[in-house]
Design goal:
single chain, 168 residues, mainly beta, four-stranded antiparallel sheet, two-stranded antiparallel sheet, 3 helices, 6 strands, 12% helix
Length: 168
């Protein structure tokens, strides 16, 4: 049963006592999930595989979802699909800890929400476009140039660097 307040918390106590090589899968599926104030995903799906190693528990996950973004050219809101993977080792002790610094808590409850959020944010485009050929907005009147041409043309540039544009 998934705790609605902590949907990505997994009790791994039983895996710790398994043989090296044992692994378990944990599927996740949510129509809508809020990972933080700044990240809400729709149609979220994920599969986490936890494997027992001599050093700790290896967490591998594959995730997908959709995020609402605003096009940087025309300001139209659109749905952007995201797909990401994560691989992290939760160590049994300080001696086995990896660069990430993750250690299995004493209560054997691993909460993956922060990791899932961080990896998802890495997939969000810096300059999102609703379409690669988006024409943007007219700088004079603000008309969405994807909908109609307003007739305005760019002014000639009096910059001393304008001649360099001709070389391109």
């Amino acid at each position: 049963m998934v705790n609605p307040r902590l949907p990505f918390r997994i009790n791994v106590g039983f895996i710790i006592h398994e043989e090296v090589g044992a692994h378990y899968e944990f599927p996740f599926e949510f129509q809508k999930i809020q990972l933080s104030e700044d990240l809400e995903l729709q149609n979220f799906k994920g599969l986490v595989e936890i494997g027992r190693t001599p050093q700790g528990l290896l967490i591998q996950g594959k995730f997908s979802g959709k995020i609402r973004l605003e096009c940087v050219r025309c300001l139209k809101e659109f749905s952007q699909p995201l797909h990401w993977n994560l691989t992290e080792l939760f160590a049994f002790n300080e001696k086995s800890v990896s660069d990430s610094g993750l250690i299995i808590p004493d209560d054997a409850q691993i909460d993956l929400e922060t990791l899932i959020r961080e990896y998802a944010l890495l997939e969000v485009p810096i300059n999102p476009l609703h379409a690669a050929d988006c024409k943007g907005l007219c700088p004079v009147c603000g008309q969405d140039l994807n909908m109609a041409d307003c007739g305005h043309r760019p002014e000639q540039n009096d910059s001393p660097f304008a001649a360099l544009k001709d070389l391109l």
